[in-house]
Amino acid sequence: MELVKKKIRTNMLGKTVVDQFMIDDDYNVPDSKNDVGRVVSGEGTIKIEEIKRVENYLRVTGKLYFKALYVTDEGEPRLSSLDGKMPFEEMIYMEEETEGEYVVQVGRVEFTASVIHSRKLSLKAVVELTVHTERGADEETTVDVDSGKTLYKKQRPLELLQLHTNKRDIYRIKEEITIPGTKENIGTLLWTDVSSRKMDTKLGQDALFIRGELLVFCFYESQDGKTDWVEQVVPYEGRVECMGADESLYHHVYDQLGDINVEVRMDEDGEMRALGVEATLDLRILIYEEENIEILEDVYALDEECMPQKRPTVYEELIMQNHSKCKVTEQLNLPELKEEILQICHTGGSLQVEHMEVVPEGIQIDGVLHVNFLYVKANDAVPFDMWSGMIPFSYLLESGKTCDDMRYDITYAVEQLSVGLSGSDEVEIKAVLTFKSFLRSPVNTQVITDLEFHPFDENEMSQRPGIVGYIVKDGDDLWSLAKKYYTTMDGIMEINGLTSEDLKEGDKILIFKENMSIL
């Protein structure tokens, strides 16, 4: 006797740990930079460099990269900027060591820079990290049994998700833009903001195809000392190798834009009117395929006792892969800026999801949209300033099917964002938020690992009736009745003239032992 088995590759996830820590340090302004009078805006990003298990902790090391736009405090006030980096080390307590690769994702980084004095800044960043382990595992499931014995087998058809690919990759973006002819030549870059918009992926033959846009904003001082800005959309597209992939498979991609660099270049005429834009997309790519299989659920014999040995196993089936959008519109009254905003130069934003919960209609997502905008104000000395705020949002990601233990991968981004003046102290904020979801439900089943055979107890068998009149109860099925009374499904159907395997509660049927003859 031999069990026929098939391997199903699954993605095993460990427990998720959320860690929050603070980076707090003083920063001396470099000698090459002007004295700092007032910080207009600051931004910080985290780059993880090493992850290492140390006893019951996970040591995460890396750097905080920061930049600040400020008003100088010497001579005639003007805008200037500085940037730098600070190392960090965080020890995250992990309850127990689990197999697999550690996946550390950076959540929101709340960065602030404040002036201690003109040559020293206080830098603070609140960082949130999420950590879990994942590993690919080949789970063997029994689909049949080869045996010289006469066995009756019950098989359960399933449509399961199988992990095809789990990989990390980096897609490099290198583009160049030329500023419009109405703009001044670039002297010094003061502030840049590069964000990813409308990033989309699709599978093709042996590849993942990527397409999206970079929204590039550059705030600069011209060679004549004038302040100007330029904002352009830079499209990009390319591919990442994924051997064995094709259009029939499913996928979900976690992406993070990093290593952003914007530099001034000469155009074809030798003037400083071009900008080189470089960035990387750090990708975590999960590819799945659906497979129809019939697992061996139960076995019995009529001439001896057959005892299947089982173990519990959990597989996954697909509920939904979907891209959806949520519109957010908010009218804000800003009395502190009354009569001050003359023009909005640039708008930036990011999403912070605070809560996700499975509800009967789908997944309820609540969070805040962080918004900031750089504007021209009525001040002849330094006519620019930055406003920052947040808008709460609530969105129901609808799903035709849900379950309490539903598993999901959800990524989100700001696709469109605009801020318009609607009065002397009012602004209207409009945003389109995108949610890419990959929803699965667990399939709990018992996998047969072995079959044990034992002779029947002859005394017990002799006491069992050869004919049973049975009234069908709720939950009964032909298989269970045939196995219980040592007969076959075909035998019950033939004797009772049944044309379907379906039984109704209250039906009256006769059940004969298989070795009994009808007189």
TrEMBL record:
Domain annotation LysM: ranges: 468-511
InterPro entries given in the database record: LysM, LysM_dom_sf, SipL_SPOCS_dom
Name of the protein described by the UniProt record: DUF3794 domain-containing protein
